[in-house]
Amino acid sequence: MILKSVCAFGLGILCSISAFASPIPDSCRIGGFAIGCQAWTFKNYSVFEAIDKTADAGGKVIEFFPGQKLSPEQPDVKFDHNVSDDIIAKVKAKLAERNIKAVNYGVVSIPKDEAGARKVFEFAKKLDLYGITTESVESMDTIEKLVKEYDIRVGFHDHPRRPNDPSYKMWDPNYLLSIVKDRDPRIGSTADIGHWVRSGLDPLKCLQILHGRIISSHMKDLNEKSPSAHDVPFGEGVSNIPALLKELKRQGFVGNISIEYEYNWDNNVLDAAQCIGFVRGFTSK
User: Fold this and answer.
1) Largest Cα span, the chain
2) Backbone angles phi, psi at 196, to 5 degrees
3) Mind listing the pLDDT tens digit of every residue in the chain (285 residues)?
4) CA-CA distance, 111 to 105, in Å (whole number)?
5) Nearest to 259 by CA among 28, 42, 79, 97
6) Which SS3 state, helix, strand or coil, does residue 47 take?
7) What's the CA gap between 62 and 42, in Å, rounded?
8) In three state form, how does the secondary structure of 124-172 look?
9) What residues form DSSP beta bridges with 221?
10) CB atoms within 10 A of CB 12
C-alpha cells in the first residue's frame, strides 16, 4: 500500500519533470536511453582520454567528476568547476571531436553559501549539462533555489550503507525520498544500482520507491550480493539489469545512465562496451 501511494505521487510529479527543461537529445540515446560512461570508470586516465574511451565503448554521453587530470599534455590541470573558460572550451572541443555530449557532473559537494554553490551551477550551464550529482543534503535550500534559477536538475547519490556510521542515511531510498518529495521536481535521485546491492537492498524496489524522482543512474551489475562485490558486464551479475531497464522505461525516465565500472581499472573499455551493447540489444528486442 505504501509503495502504491508513493508511485501515485510519482506519476503526478513525472509530468512536471517532463514539462520543465530541455531533454537530452534523441541522438544521444540508445534504445531510448541516454547511455555512456561516468568518467570515474577511467579515473586512472585524463578527461580527454575518458572522452575517447567513452566513444570507443560506443557511449553517447559522459558524466564528469571533479578533480580528474585534464589531458596527457596538461596532467597538472585538474578539471572541476573552478577551471577557466579556456579549459572548458578545450573540453567542449574534444567532446565535439568525438561526438560525445556531457550531461552530468558529480559526485560534487555543493556548499550552503550561494556564491560557492553558484560556481557549480555556472560550470554546469557552460557545459550545457542536464544535471548535477551530489550528496550535499545540508545545502538543500540553496540547491533548490539554484535549480529553479538555472533549470538544471540535481540528483542525490547513494553510497553503500555504513554500519559504523548510522548518521549516513543516503543509502536508504526511503530517506532519500523524504528529503526530496516536497522539493522542486527537478531534484531527486542519482540511483547508484551497485551501491544499493552492496547495502543489501533490492534495486528494483528502490527504483519503485523513488518513482518519478529518478534524475539519473550510475548503473552497475555486480558479481554477488555483498559489500565487497565488484562490477561485471551487464547481464552477468546479480543486479537484474533487464528488470531495472524495464522499470525505468515504465516510469518514463528521461535522464542519463552512466556506466560506472569500478573494476579492471586499466583495461575496462571492452567491459563498458559490453554494458552498452547489452542495453542496445535488450532495448531492440
Assistant:
1) 57
2) -65, -45
3) 333 333 333 433 343 344 445 689 999 999 899 999 999 999 999 999 999 999 999 999 999 999 999 999 999 999 999 999 999 999 999 999 999 999 999 999 999 999 999 999 999 999 999 999 999 999 999 999 999 999 999 999 999 999 999 999 999 999 999 999 999 999 999 999 999 999 999 999 999 999 999 999 999 999 999 999 999 999 999 999 999 999 999 999 999 999 999 999 999 999 999 999 999 998 655
4) 15
5) 42
6) helix
7) 11
8) HHHCCCCEEEECCHHHHHHHHHHHHHHCCEEEEECCCCCCCCCCCCCCC
9) 232
10) 10
Helix residue ranges per DSSP H, 21-151 = 47-56, 85-98, 114-126, 140-150
| Count of all residues that appear for the chain in the document | 285
Roughly how many angstroms between the first and final C-alpha of the chain, as a whole number?
A: 33
Give the helix/strand (H/E) hosting 283.
helix 269-283
121: amino acid identity, one letter: F
Give the three cell numbers for residue 266.
586499466
Q: Which cell numbers hold the place of 67?
A: 578533480
Please indicate, yes or no, whether the overall pTM of this predicted structure exceeds 0.85: yes
Quick check: 241 and 201 in contact, CB under 8 A? no
Q: Peptide bond preceding 107: is omega within 30 degrees of 0, i.e. cis?
A: yes
Show the cell assigned to 71. 589531458
